């Protein structure tokens, strides 16, 4: 986030922090659930919103900071949000998956960088 704030301060623009709640997958979601998929998605969104509120509350910046939560494919939602607000730049982190993990996990940073209509800064 420091890179995003550095760029926003340099250009005197606001920041939109976007968190995309993807469909749950992996070991911790394969157990029998006593909640509906809608309840699980709502719980995940609530947790993400609370973390975002705390994060924005800790930021000491004169910049306009907006927090947004979306559901769906992370790359698609990032690109749609950037297009909707006519973003001047997208800043995102890379998880640096390689080998089999790269094959098994979609590389969001790569997809966004390849399809975005604005500059993309990928931070490792």
UniProtKB/TrEMBL annotation:
Record-annotated UspA domain positions: 3-124
Pfam families: Usp
CDD domains xref list: USP-like
Recorded superkingdom: Bacteria
InterPro entries in alphabetical order: Rossmann-like_a/b/a_fold, Universal_stress_UspA, UspA
Sequence similarity: Belongs to the universal stress protein A family.
The name this protein goes by in its record: Universal stress protein family
Organism per entry: Shewanella benthica KT99
Lineage, opening ranks: Bacteria, Pseudomonadati, Pseudomonadota, Gammaproteobacteria, Alteromonadales
């Amino acid at each position: 986030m420091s890179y995003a704030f550095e760029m926003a301060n340099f250009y005197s623009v606001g920041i939109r922090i976007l968190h995309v709640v993807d469909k749950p997958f992996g070991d911790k979601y394969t157990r029998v659930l006593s909640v509906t998929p809608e309840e699980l998605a709502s719980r995940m969104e609530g947790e993400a919103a609370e973390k975002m509120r705390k994060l924005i509350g800790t930021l000491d910046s004169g910049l306009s900071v907006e927090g947004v939560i979306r559901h769906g494919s992370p790359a698609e939602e990032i690109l749609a949000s950037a297009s909707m607000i006519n973003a001047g730049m997208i800043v995102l982190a890379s998880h640096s998956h390689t080998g089999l993990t790269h094959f098994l996990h979609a590389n969001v940073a790569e997809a966004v960088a390849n399809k975005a209509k604005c500059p993309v800064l990928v931070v490792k």
